[in-house]
Amino acid sequence: MKDDKAKQLLSRVQNSIVDVISKGLEEGSITEDRAKEIAQVVLDKLPEDVTYEELMRIIPKLDDDFKELSAAVVPIMLEYESKMKDIINDRISSLLKNQKFSEALDTARKAIEFERGLS
């Protein structure tokens, strides 16, 4: 693992997914075969040596094939997007205060493009 930030996020995602699967099995909304399938795909897509950037590209897609994982994925992505918006807004505000309008516009465009990639 390249950094603690990635390691912590990976652990959080894995724990959240285990909770979703366990709850689904207890309630009967997830079959044993489905749980095994989800677990295998998650293990394949989230290796121990994954970087933070890779995690942020993979996590939003985990619930594409497994809608059950939305309960694990959505809260993490909402938190991440909120943090990113705060950082980007601060950066753009600073650029505007310094009358660096083209850089502010470029930053806004990049942020919009990045956010599209998370969907």
Report on this structure.
- By secondary structure, this protein is mainly α.
- It has one domain.
- Helix content is 80%, strand content 0%.
- The protein has 6 helices and no strands.
- Helix 1 packs antiparallel against helix 2, helix 1 packs antiparallel against helix 5 and helix 5 runs antiparallel to helix 6.
- The model has no long low-confidence stretch (mean pLDDT 91).
Fold topology:
Elements: H1 4-27, H2 32-45, H3 52-58, H4 62-65, H5 70-97, H6 101-118
Helix amount: over 70%
By DSSP (H or I, 4+ residues per run), the number of helices equals: 6
Strand content: under 5%
Q: Report the strand count.
A: 0
Mean pLDDT: 91
The helix/strand order is HHHHHH
The biggest sheet amounts to:
none
| Weakly predicted, low-confidence segments | none
Characterize the overall form: elongated
Distance between the termini: 25 Å
Give the domain tally.
1
User: If you compute it from the alpha carbons, what radius of gyration comes out, rounded to the nearest whole angstrom?
Assistant: 18 Å
Structural class: mainly alpha
